[in-house]
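Query structure, 167 tokens:
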């Protein structure tokens, strides 16, 4: 074998060894990156579960308060609807169908001004808005109470929370 061939084989082997080393290094970096990504996904899942637990606890508390007449239906439905829209359900839930009375009450009051914003309106306008809200609360009361019981069952209270009272 000529010395030229030997040099070519040695150079080729060095190139192959260098490429193999580089490929191994890339594979190792990929493995580390996937592990970090998986850890990040797990961290996000834990945060989402914690957030869902807080939201579920709040929904449960408001539903209980509505059932016990400690919270007006309009305020409870408004708060519950906003919380449910932020909740990450494990399966698709058609909230407008599943909780139609809560949605109807939310739909009635969602555009109504609250607190200082009410001061911009005349007493007559405020009374008209309140009358509309009261009528809706009266009409939807039975359905809202039934759905409050469903909400209480679907969204469990956090047993470690400080504000949820025992059954």
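Result returned for the query:
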């Amino acid at each position: 074998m000529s010395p030229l061939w030997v040099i070519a084989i040695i150079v080729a082997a060095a190139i192959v060894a260098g490429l193999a080393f580089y490929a191994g290094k890339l594979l190792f970096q990929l493995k580390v990156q996937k592990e970090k990504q998986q850890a990040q996904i797990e961290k996000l899942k834990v945060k989402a579960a914690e957030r869902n637990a807080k939201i579920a606890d709040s929904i449960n508390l408001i539903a209980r308060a509505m059932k016990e007449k400690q919270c007006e239906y309009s305020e409870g439905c408004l708060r519950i609807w906003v919380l449910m829209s932020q909740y990450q359900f494990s399966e698709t839930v058609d909230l407008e169908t599943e909780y139609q009375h809560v949605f109807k009450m939310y739909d009635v009051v969602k555009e109504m001004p609250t607190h200082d914003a009410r001061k911009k309106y005349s007493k007559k306008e405020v009374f008209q808005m309140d009358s509309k809200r009261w009528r809706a609360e009266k009409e939807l009361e039975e359905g809202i109470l039934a759905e409050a019981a469903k909400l209480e069952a679907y969204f469990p209270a956090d047993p470690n929370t400080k504000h949820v009272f025992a059954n």
